[in-house]
């Protein structure tokens, strides 16, 4: 993992008088047990805030307020926010530019990303052929996970995707689109994702604890889902 250190100016939620969860709730005209629902859904953490103040915290027995959880695709929103900051700082001139202006290795012959606008990739309309079926062991997302698990390169994997549609014509959820944006962020800033995000997001947001990015065998962050936080 690559670590983003806790903010030197942490901003914890203000606390107010604790409140208890109700014992039951009504759904589809049936009264149901709240504790059973939290168990059945394997709810890791439940926080209740009112007027910006913490009123209730509930954690699964195997977790707690200091446990790091993998964010999965919530990480995608952190990456797109960091791209926006890089645009604001002039490190990326325009999202109308092709990503290959910054990441030429995605411009190899036959690559789905050759000449594709950054905007289209941000909107997951890159045109890349992709199957994100987690139940299919032959899917593209399974191949991507395999590349990570065996110590391979996420960057090299991104360059293997081929075009299925004209860019900007169709929105298709594609985790590798965000990995390509991670490559863009590194190329445009000259810094790792963790290093840039620590300065521009993690510390300014007042994060109380370290955050950790899963990295591949070459030290590249798993941009599409590898952010771990409390």
Helix content: 25-40%
Order of helices and strands: EEEEHEEEHHHHHHEE
In whole angstroms, the N-to-C terminal distance is 15 Å
Number of DSSP strands? 9
**Structural class of the helices, strands and pairings?**
alpha+beta
Question: How much strand?
Answer: 5-15%
Secondary structure tally, helices: 7
**For the CA atoms, what is the radius of gyration?**
20 Å
Largest sheet: 4 strands, antiparallel
Query: Major sheet: order of its strands?
Result: 1-8-9-7
Please characterize this protein's 3D structure.
- There is one protein chain.
- The protein has 230 residues and is of the alpha+beta class.
- The protein is 29% helix and 15% strand.
- The chain has helices at 34-40, 74-88, 118-122, 140-149, 154-158, 175-189, 193-202; strands at 2-4, 14-15, 24-27, 30-33, 45-50, 53-59, 69-70, 211-213, 227-229.
- The chain has a four-stranded antiparallel sheet, with helices on one face. Strands 2-6-5 form a three-stranded mixed sheet, with no helix packed on it. A two-stranded antiparallel ribbon has the order 3-4.
- The two termini are 15 Å apart.
């Amino acid at each position: 993992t690559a670590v983003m250190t806790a903010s030197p100016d942490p901003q914890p939620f203000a606390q107010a008088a604790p409140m208890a969860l109700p014992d039951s709730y009504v759904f589809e005209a049936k009264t149901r047990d709240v504790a059973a629902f939290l168990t059945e859904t394997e709810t890791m953490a439940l926080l209740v805030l009112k007027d910006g103040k913490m009123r209730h915290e509930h954690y699964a027995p195997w977790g707690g307020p200091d446990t790091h959880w993998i964010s999965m695709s919530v990480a995608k929103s952190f990456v797109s926010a960091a791209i926006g900051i890089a645009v604001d700082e002039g490190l990326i001139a325009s999202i109308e530019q092709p990503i290959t202006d910054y990441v030429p290795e995605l411009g190899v012959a036959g690559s789905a990303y050759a000449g594709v606008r950054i905007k289209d990739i941000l909107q997951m309309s890159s045109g890349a052929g992709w199957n994100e079926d987690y139940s299919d062991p032959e899917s593209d997302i399974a191949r991507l996970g395999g590349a990570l698990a065996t110590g391979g390169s996420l960057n090299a994997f991104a360059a293997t995707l081929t075009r299925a549609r004209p860019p900007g014509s169709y929105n298709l959820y594609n985790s590798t689109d965000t990995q390509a944006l991670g490559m863009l962020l590194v190329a445009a800033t000259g810094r790792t994702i963790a290093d840039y995000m620590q300065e521009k997001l993690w510390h300014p947001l007042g994060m109380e604890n370290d955050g950790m990015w899963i990295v591949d065998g070459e030290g590249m962050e798993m941009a599409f889902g590898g952010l771990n936080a409390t």
